């Protein structure tokens, strides 16, 4: 392609022409062969670059395939032999014992997932273990009583400081109810229902925003974990949807399986599925929600066509959670458990929950503090179940021996090391494990000098 440019002088002389030849193909900073690209596309576009730096990134500790672990140093030499977690061992005599969650075909950890902090611990340990605490026994007793009562009578919210073991206790409750034959619905990361990570569409029939992809994933997970018990339940009336109908007598396992395979009907199937679970009286149902405070924030990350923030009770999945948590909807037998995450700046604990649970806030609040009447109604009837902020000495010793048996200590494993780490962390469970026990993996092991009296001086901290 040729382009001719004409340039005329002020004296109207002979017009000079310049011929410029342009190639037929256009190149946008394409590198020469053998050279690096001048511009690179980046997947993450954010102003907070420090949060995505390698230094501040929280790893996932993904394990290598066995084909790459042929050396003897990579073979497991763990002497950890814990008890198997089951309802029979949850007695007061077993407080301070370590129990491992059994690997079963319908493992809720495998299909529902866990909060990331629990996931990291389970990947570091050779077995998925937890310690039986006083609060574990109390929760099991409350769940046994709830097996014969409607769920609106047993609605607890696990509260406590950061890293006190709320998520572990919620997971223990899930495993306990599943072993007891309950139907378990476990949502380990409730903020994923309000942080705009899945698609949403407005529904004129319900006048709410549906979340078809999340509903499809939830139905598939419920079916994988509870397929045996769902086979014993069936729908009583014919269910007619836009693209498919289910006759009376269809089992709830078939209903959940169909909704888990087709996102176009998943929202309607999930609504019908929850209605059937609410009406049946044969099997108790546990609804366990972690990041519980996320669904009580007045604004979500979802936006309507006018780019206004959508309220949580206008989204389908959070609305279901709010209705069962408030008692507006109830299972004939069962319980509702939630766990708060106190350190999430994106979804903090709102005033409505703090008022209902009697929690102190970071800032003083008065009767004139802003509150939502709708969320206050959804918070009515919730009971506070405080989780102890510290390990007892017996519980901490069991956790210390568990990590010691799994070869997680580089320092000499003795009473002095245990007491020093317990004192440093103040007995707080997460700090005791991550800053205390696993902190010994950083740097060279301390040199023990028998002439020095105090363990703090032996490790060189004084």
UniProtKB/TrEMBL annotation:
GO MF entries: structural constituent of ribosome
Location(s) in or outside the cell: Mitochondrion
Keyword Iron: no
Species this protein is from: Collybiopsis luxurians FD-317 M1
GO cellular component: mitochondrial small ribosomal subunit
Alphabetic keyword roster: Mitochondrion, Ribonucleoprotein, Ribosomal protein, Transit peptide
Gene3D superfamilies recorded: P-loop containing nucleotide triphosphate hydrolases (3.40.50.300)
Signal peptide: none
InterPro entries noted in UniProt: P-loop_NTPase, Ribosomal_mS29, Ribosomal_mS29_met
GO biological process: apoptotic process
Name of the featured protein: Small ribosomal subunit protein mS29
Pfam families with a match to the protein in the record: DAP3
Record keyword Transferase present: no
Domain of life, source organism: Eukaryota
Family: Belongs to the mitochondrion-specific ribosomal protein mS29 family.
